[in-house]
Write a structure and sequence with these properties.
By secondary structure, this protein is α+β, with helices and mostly antiparallel strands. It has one domain: Deoxyribonuclease I, Chain A (4-Layer Sandwich). It has 4 helices and 12 strands; from the N terminus they run H-E-E-E-E-E-H-E-H-E-H-E-E-E-E-E. The strands form 4 sheets. A 6-stranded mixed sheet has the order 3-4-5-6-10-7. Helix 2 runs parallel beside helix 3. The two termini are 33 Å apart.
Length: 238
C-alpha cells in the first residue's frame, strides 16, 4: 500500500513509520517469502524534502477480546520554502478513551520536548555532518478516534473555561478547524460504511500556536469514496 501511494505522487518525498510489524503466512498454506509482513503505521507525503524522521511508539495496554494494535506517530522535519516545519502523522487507539488520553499526553510531551531533546539524530558533528534543524512550529494530523470536546480532545487542546472559552497557551496544540469556526452541528469526518446515518468527527489537524495566525482555511471533504474517513484540508499561509 505504501509503495502504491508513493507511486501516485512521483514528485513527492515520503516516509513511512510502521508502529506494528508482524510476520504472516500467505493464505492457502503455501510457503511465503521471508519478507511477508503485516505492518500498521503512518505515512507522510511532502512536496519538499523530508530532512529527518522518526516513529514515536505511543503507550498502550493489553486488551482481552478486542484487537488492539501498537499505535505510533510518524514525525517528519520538512524543509519548506518558509523554513523547516515539523509534521506528525497520527493514528490513535480506537477502543479506549483512557488509552487515547495517555497517548495524547505522551505525544504532547514529545512534541514540546523536541527542541531540547532533538529529533532523530543529534551530535552529527562527530561525522562531519550538521544536525537537522529543530523547528518550533508543527502540525499534527490524522485519525484521532475522538470527537470534539471529548475528555481526550480536551486533554490535548485544553478545556474550555466557562467565561473565557479555550485560551491559546504555549505548548498546547490548536485545532485548525475550530480556530477558523469551521465546525457546524452536522460536521463529520467519518461515516459507517454499513449505516450512513452513523457519522462522527474523528479526524483533525492541530497546529502550534506560532501557526495560528497563518491559518487561511480548513474544511472536511465528504465527497471521496475511497475510505470510511474523509480528508481534512488545511491551508497555511506564509
Amino acid at each position: 500500500m505504501v509503495a502504491d501511494l508513493a507511486a501516485l505522487f512521483p514528485d513527492h518525498f515520503w516516509v513511512y513509520g510502521p508502529a506494528c510489524d508482524l510476520h504472516v503466512e500467505p493464505p492457502g498454506g503455501t510457503p511465503g517469502p521471508r519478507a511477508c509482513r503485516f505492518q500498521f503505521g503512518n505515512m507522510v507525503l511532502s512536496r519538499w524534502p523530508i530532512l529527518s524522521t522518526r516513529t514515536l511508539l505511543l503507550p498502550r495496554s493489553r486488551t482481552v477480546s478486542k484487537l488492539n494494535l501498537q499505535r505510533g506517530a510518524t514525525e517528519a522535519v520538512i524543509d519548506t520554502p518558509d523554513g523547516a516545519l515539523r509534521a506528525y502523522s497520527v493514528h490513535l487507539d480506537h477502543v479506549s478513551a483512557d488509552e487515547r488520553i495517555r497517548q495524547l499526553v505522551f505525544l504532547n510531551e514529545r512534541i514540546n520536548a523536541f527542541t531540547h531533546e532533538g529529533g532523530s539524530v543529534t551530535g552529527a558533528l562527530e561525522f562531519d555532518a550538521s544536525d537537522p534543524p529543530l523547528p518550533e512550529n508543527y502540525v499534527v494530523m490524522g485519525d484521532f478516534n475522538m470527537v470534539p470536546e471529548s475528555p481526550e480532545y480536551c486533554a490535548f487542546a485544553g478545556t474550555k473555561d466557562g467565561y473565557y472559552g479555550r485560551m491559546a497557551r504555549i505548548g498546547t496544540p490548536i485545532d485548525a478547524l475550530a480556530a477558523l469556526n469551521g465546525y457546524t452541528p452536522g460536521s463529520y469526518s467519518w461515516m459507517d460504511p454499513e449505516d450512513h446515518d452513523k457519522r462522527m468527527h474523528l479526524d483533525y489537524c492541530f497546529v502550534s500556536g506560532g501557526l495560528e495566525h497563518r491559518l487561511i482555511s480548513a474544511s472536511v471533504d465528504t465527497t471521496p469514496t475511497g475510505s470510511d474517513h474523509f480528508p481534512v484540508w488545511v491551508e497555511i499561509g506564509r
